[in-house]
Design brief:
The structure holds two protein chains of two kinds.
Chain A: H1 3-14, E1 17-22, H2 28-35, E2 49-50, E3 59-63, E4 66-67, H3 68-80, E5 86-90, H4 92-96, E6 106-108, E7 118-120, H5 127-141, H6 153-157
Parallel strand pairs in A: 1-2, 1-3, 3-5, 5-7
Antiparallel strand pairs in A: 4-6
Chain B: E1 3-8, E2 20-26, E3 29-36, H1 44-49, H2 53-61, H3 68-83, H4 89-117, H5 121-142, E4 151-152, E5 155-156, H6 162-188, H7 190-196, H8 204-209, H9 214-218, H10 226-229, H11 250-274, E6 291-299, E7 302-310, E8 316-322, H12 324-335, H13 344-350, H14 355-358, H15 376-389, H16 395-405
Antiparallel strand pairs in B: 1-2, 2-3, 4-5, 6-7, 7-8
The chains are: A alpha/beta, B alpha+beta.
């Protein structure tokens, strides 16, 4: 790897920008994705920022099975994202279609429409699972195996400490 | 000034779910709002017919990931009515407890989203942090943060110990303390008052005419609450006030929701104090006898109704879901008339929309004499008639073509 490529990878891992897209989910996974951005889990401490437009995003976080009506929009949003781009499927529905598999208006998992880099199962996937899945995706960018995590200082140094007190 | 049409959605930073709003603007003022739904339509009602009743409980729970208990309770209530099951009183109390905890988490969630839409992200971070305490309670009580899987036909699937219920009370104390602060923020903070007052105005007459329900309607003095008007579960034993407000705007809707939170805490304490002992489930038959039932439930967003028709087998013949957002959505167009474009996100957020609940399919049969399907022959005859009206007749040409082919 040339030093420039290394630099780009370093920058990408330090601060991946994500866009969230609901492709027909029941809201549970969406709420958990937003919950992972709020103080308890605070995914922003890893430099992960939620963006409003696909043109600024590196990672497309999808939740829910792909309905027939949303299919074309999902492809359009995927195509609008700049290269290199990664797709994370959050929740059992987006991994495989889940309970909605076989419904007349459901295509199935996200991977029936666009390529997926990371699957996070769960109904809904808990914020801790989402953070773990994203960390593994970032690890794979460094050429690590799926069971090894990214060498992000924040992840190594700060284990996930759930803040229990709610006063103040 | 020329009118401008702006499409908002299906993917838009101001919207959390895929839905499309087509806004017609005159300058900064909204003159018309058109909605396009159905991006979230998964065909749950049809899928219910292909699954057994027990499987349906879990499928119906996934209609919505915020008010999942509302939908599953509403469904099992209907099924139990058809089967003539009398569920144990401890089970009704446990269902009511989960229902009220769900209302707490849903209203706290709404408060955060409303704060985010008006650029007050501190409120989002505060409320969502406190909401985590409720989510932990859910995880401890039911085993999952969302989609609790508590209901089954004939009762609930888990029983709670005294220690677990004592822990709930501790969480309720913390949340009540925090909610007092949020009431102060919502009713005294000048930025919130100035931003929300007069936005999304919906008069009492319009609210009645458009059939708004839930906190949206109650903020326009529509004094309706299924918990009081048609008590289900354990609500007839509980004492609570139905909060109404006469501000008729987004500010009123925020006030109704934060004050409802205080009622929820009161109710949770009462439920735990009165929790009867006994079994939590009765044996339900696998095949439900033929019959039909209509069930009502006051979900956090308003009245949720389910209709179930059974035909004597282990699968329902028809399931119909009417989610509260469906009733409230029409009022958004009225609320936004002559409002600024910048008020659109908060006005939409103020009804607490849940489009995954709403996206059911409705077929309209011969409404107003218009055929909903057009056959190929009809289309061809229509085109021949249309061309004749224009003075063009292909009849002679068609005959010539037919002769040549022969």
């Amino acid at each position: 790897m040339s030093w420039l490529a290394k630099l780009v990878t370093w920058a990408r891992i330090k601060s991946p920008w994500i866009i969230h897209f609901n492709s027909g989910a029941c809201n549970a996974c969406d709420i958990e994705i937003v919950a992972s951005l709020t103080p308890r889990f605070d995914i922003e401490r890893f430099g992960i920022l939620l963006k409003g437009t696909p043109r600024h995003a590196d990672v497309l976080v999808c939740s829910g099975p792909v309905t027939r009506q949303i299919k074309d929009r999902l492809i359009r949003i995927y195509e609008q994202m700049p290269e290199p781009k990664f797709v994370v499927a959050v929740g059992t529905c987006s991994c495989s279609g889940g309970v909605f598999n076989g419904c007349y208006n459901v295509m199935g998992g996200i991977d029936t429409v666009i390529p997926v880099s990371a699957y996070i199962p769960g109904c809904p996937a808990s914020p801790a699972a989402i953070i773990d899945g994203v960390a593994k995706l970032l690890g794979s960018l460094q050429g690590k195996k799926p069971d090894e995590k990214a060498e992000i200082e924040a992840i190594v140094k700060k284990p996930l400490e759930a803040e229990t007190s709610t006063n103040g | 000034m020329a009118k401008v049409t702006i499409p908002i959605g299906p993917q838009h930073p101001a919207l959390k779910e895929p839905e499309s709003f087509i806004v017609t603007l005159n300058g900064e003022k909204i003159t018309n709002l058109d909605m396009r739904l159905g991006y979230n339509h998964r065909g749950i009602e049809k899928a219910c017919e292909a699954r057994t009743y027990v499987q349906d409980v879990y499928l119906i729970e996934r209609v919505c990931g915020i008010c999942s208990h509302s939908h599953s309770t509403c469904f099992v209530q209907a099924v139990e009515e058809i089967a003539g099951l009398q569920i144990p009183s401890r089970a009704t109390y446990i269902r009511t407890l989960i229902a009220e905890l769900e209302r707490i988490h849903s209203h706290l969630l709404w408060l955060g989203v409303a704060g985010h839409e008006i650029g007050f992200d501190t409120l989002l971070m505060y409320t969502w942090r406190d909401r985590e305490a409720v989510m932990d309670t859910f995880a401890a009580l039911t085993g999952n943060r969302v989609n609790y899987g508590m209901n089954t036909i004939g009762g609930v699937r888990r029983d709670f110990t005294k220690e677990q219920l004592a822990d709930v009370l501790k969480v309720i104390d913390i949340c009540e303390e925090r909610t007092k602060y949020y009431i102060e923020v919502c009713t005294q903070e000048p930025t919130v008052i100035n931003r929300l007052s007069g936005v999304g105005y919906l008069s009492h007459e319009d609210a009645m005419r458009l059939g708004t329900i839930g906190p949206t309607g109650r903020a326009s003095a529509v004094d309706k609450d299924v918990r009081r008007d048609d008590p289900y579960l354990a609500y007839k034993d509980l004492s609570f006030n139905v909060i109404t407000d006469t501000h008729n705007d987004v500010f009123g809707r925020a006030v109704v929701r934060v004050l409802e939170l205080m009622e929820c805490y009161k109710m949770v304490r009462e439920i735990i104090a009165r929790m009867p002992d006994g079994p939590v489930t009765v044996k339900a038959p696998r095949k439900i006898p033929a019959g039909e039932a209509f069930s009502r439930y006051e979900a956090p967003r308003g009245e949720d109704t389910h209709f179930v028709k059974a035909n004597g087998t282990d699968k329902p013949e028809r399931v119909r879901v009417r989610a509260p957002t469906m009733a409230n959505l029409q009022s958004v167009a009225k609320m936004l008339e002559d409002n600024n474009l910048a008020d659109l996100p908060i006005a939409i957020a103020a009804i607490d929309p849940c489009f995954s609940c709403t996206d059911r399919m409705i077929g309209v049969k011969n409404a107003g004499g218009i055929k909903d399907t057009v056959r190929w022959d009809d289309l061809r005859n229509y085109s021949i008639k249309w061309y004749r009206q224009q003075g063009i007749d292909f009849t002679g040409l068609n005959k010539k073509m037919a002769n040549r082919q022969e």
